[in-house]
Each structure stands twice: as C-alpha cells, then as structure tokens.
Design brief:
Layout lengths: L3 E7 L6 H4 L6 H7 L5 H20 L10 E2 L5 E2 L5 E7 L2 E7 L3 E7 L15 H10 L1 H18 L13 E2 L4 E4 L2 E10 L3 E7 L10 E7 L5 E5 L4 E3 L11
Parallel strand pairs: 1-11
Antiparallel strand pairs: 1-5, 2-3, 4-5, 6-10, 7-8, 8-9, 9-10, 9-13, 11-12
C-alpha cells in the first residue's frame, strides 16, 4: 500500500459546487463556503473539504469540518486522520494524504509573473534559470519552496529562508539541516506540482494518484489512475552539495 496518495479534482469553471454538492456534507462547510464572494474560491474550498470529508467517512472518522484543528507548527490536522495538505490553482484542486508530514503546491505555468517582484526569494542561479527557461523554471522553484514551507508549517512569510534551494540529489532537499523527500510532476501538461515529505531517506513506495469526479447522483467518486501526473525534472538545478 502506498504511503502517499494524491487526489486531483479538475473543476469546470462553469460549475457552482455549492448548488450540486451532496446535501449530506456538514453544514459548517457549506456555510463557510458561502462567505467567499468569488465562485472559484467557493469551489476550491468545497472541493478540498469534500475530498477530506469523504475519505474521513470511509475510515470512520467524524469531524464537523467547519475548521481544522491546528498543530503547534500551525499545520491543520484532523484528529485520527493522516497528514494532509491542500493546493489549488485555475480550476484544479489537489489534496495530498500521507503517512508522513507533507506539503504540496500546484501552479499553472501559463500564469504571468513579474520576476522583479520576487528577486528576494530566488538565488542568483535560480534567477538565471528563470531568465533562460521562463515560466517552467519560475513555477518549478516556486512550488518546491512553497511545498517545503507548507510541510514544515512555516508558511509563505518564510520564503526568504529558502532563497537558495539546498538540493542533495533528484529526491532530497535540505532545509534547516533536515532532509525532505520531494517529487515534481506535470499535471495536464499545464500545471507543475511539487510534493514534499518529511523523510531522512528516499521513499521508494509509489505515490498513488486518484482523479476525482462527480457522479450522476452528485456523489464524489475517486478513480485510481495512471497518466494523470508525469514526473518532471527541470533541466538545470541549483545545487548546494554537502
């Protein structure tokens, strides 16, 4: 059995989940979703919690899901549930569930960016890579940094502490003298996804991928699938070898 699973939920921008979602979803989720003014924000919030609620129900965990409990390191958690993390971008919601502490980030490489606004969070080598390779390099480095900080619970306010990615090899990255396993993927050839887990050695177990969809009776369906994610290795790395 895989120690890590990714649940990928593509959401049609014309869909308003709050109108079609299963009525058994806890009321606090629906109430909080309606506080978001933009439909896309409502959908992102609902989709992630719908996934977690469904998975929790499958293993017999009851949770109100109005708000997650918060650990000392500010990471959200569900009592009795494995480590999880959420990311979303442009109609794509991804939830990671793992036996290890985990952080993920997904970004659309077609998004525009102004490198001048981010020079303080990239090393000189990374800036050179971005100037050479463009959006793929920018979002490759960005998603690694954000996934690491989500894994540790530090958050984006600490991005400057990862100005230089200390990468040991194609699997391991070091932050605050601790090793993390990371894997990079392309999703739908339009998004870059990075998965970071708190490991001291390489985890050889495969990451399982499930595509989420809505059935005819408005239930959430998980379908284990291959070919949804493609391993991605950027052609040039900023290395800081020990």
């Amino acid at each position: 059995m895989s120690s890590t699973s990714l649940y990928v939920f593509p959401i049609n921008i014309d869909i308003k989940l709050v109108d079609i979602i299963d009525i058994d979803l806890p009321k606090p989720i629906l109430e909080k979703a309606l506080r978001f003014r933009k439909i896309v924000d409502q959908n992102n919030y609902l989709a992630a919690r719908w996934i977690l609620y469904t998975l929790s129900q499958q293993i017999g965990i009851n949770h109100t899901f109005g708000d997650f409990s918060i650990e000392k390191n500010k990471k959200p958690f569900i009592p009795g549930f494995p480590s999880f993390n959420i990311s979303h971008c442009n109609g794509l919601v991804v939830v990671a569930v793992s036996d290890y502490t985990i952080g993920i980030d997904v970004e659309n490489i077609s998004r525009t960016f102004q490198l001048d606004n981010f020079t303080e969070i990239f090393s000189s080598q990374e800036i050179s890579d971005i100037e050479t390779y463009g959006a793929k390099a920018f979002f490759y480095y960005w998603t690694i940094k954000e996934a690491v900080l989500k894994c540790t619970g530090e958050g984006l306010v600490k991005l400057s502490t990862l100005q230089q990615i200390n990468q040991k090899n194609e699997h391991l990255i070091t932050h605050h003298r601790k090793d993390f396993n990371f894997k990079s993927f392309m999703v739908h050839e339009s998004h870059i996804l990075n998965v970071v887990r708190s490991l001291d050695t390489i985890d050889n177990q495969p990451i399982k991928t499930f595509k989420c969809s809505i059935s005819n009776n408005n239930a959430l369906v998980f379908e284990e699938t291959e070919g949804l994610l493609f391993p991605f290795q950027f052609p040039h790395f900023s290395l800081n070898l020990p």
